Amino acid sequence: MQQFFSSMWSICTKEIAQFFGNLSGYIAVCLFFLVTGLFLFFLSDSNILDGGYANLDSFFTLAPWIFMFMIPAVCMRVFSDEYRSGTFELLKTKPLTAGNISVGKYLAVLIIILIILLPTTIYIFTINHLSANAGIDAGGIAGSYVGLFFLAACFAAVSLCCGSFTGNAIVAFLLSSFVCLVLYFGFNAISRMPFLQGNADYYTEMLGIDFHYQSLSRGVIDSRDIIYFLSVIALALGITIHNIERRTV
After folding, report:
1. Mean pLDDT taken over the chain
2. Which of 32, 82, 239, 243 is the 20 to 30 A CA-CA neighbour of 139?
3. What is the separation of C-alpha 69 from the centre of its chain, rounded to a whole number of angstroms?
4. Rounded CA gap, 183 and 154, in Å?
């Protein structure tokens, strides 16, 4: 067990070092912070200063759509570069399992996501300071951050899964973005079709990420939502591990 975690952590730190080893990593962090700040404080349609309420609803509405493309961009080279450059063959010669490789790379992406999200906490202090009355709803914002993290974790698992099928980074990005879009908004759109009206539309909507993300964003941590996110992550990582095992044969 100690060998498993040691190998997994070495892969994790290697991926993080590679991501921040050039300007692209720092640009991704700054870009996310700047884009969300622009939408929240400067653009008229989403400016929270003109909304009259001390909340970050605009941020938590916008962030999933940015993550839908940013996380596939972060993940698109995780496996494709290994396949293309031949370094994947070197991994095969080391005492590493497919689980070591897949989970180690996934943890690296999760840590990168946390680093990307960290600067956005300044929005909480800004809105709380500008609030004229009781301040922000801390419970609701905490729940929203939990929901956003699980949503990002799902996108990361799906993106790595899609990337494990191909050695082409562009194909990995496009496929990952499409699958993330379908999981986030597709089931919600399908549930609105006339022939599903009644009980079927509710259960169809439950299959999508947006349903459970919105539930957590209300500040109520429901075990059903957590189980849903963990199930999607486990399924995506399971497929990824299978693909890696197939390539090592």
Report:
1. 82
2. 32
3. 10
4. 9
pLDDT tops 80 at residue 137: no
Counting Cα atoms < 13 Å in the Cβ hemisphere of 189 gives 6
DSSP 67-100: HHHHHHHHHHHHHHHHHHHSHHHHHHHSS--HHH
DSSP annotation string for 18-50: HHTTSHHHHHHHHHHHHHHHHHHHT-TTT-TTT
- Torsion 167-173-178-180 (CA) sign: positive
Cα 81 from Cα 121, distance rounded (Å): 33
The pLDDT confidence band at residue 183, using thresholds 50, 70 and 90, is very high
What does the angle CA 89 – CA 90 – CA 93 come to, to the nearest 5 degrees? Answer: 95
Q: Answer whether 0.70 is exceeded by the pTM.
A: yes
Type of residue found at 48 = I
The one-letter amino acid at 220: V
Position 107 scores a pLDDT of 94
Q: Rounded to whole angstroms, how far apart are CA atoms 243 and 88?
A: 13
Which residues lie closer than 8 Å to 164 by C-beta, 6 or more apart?
A: 79, 102, 239, 240, 243, 244
Structure confidence by residue, pLDDT tens digits, 67-97: 999 999 888 888 887 787 777 777 767 777 8
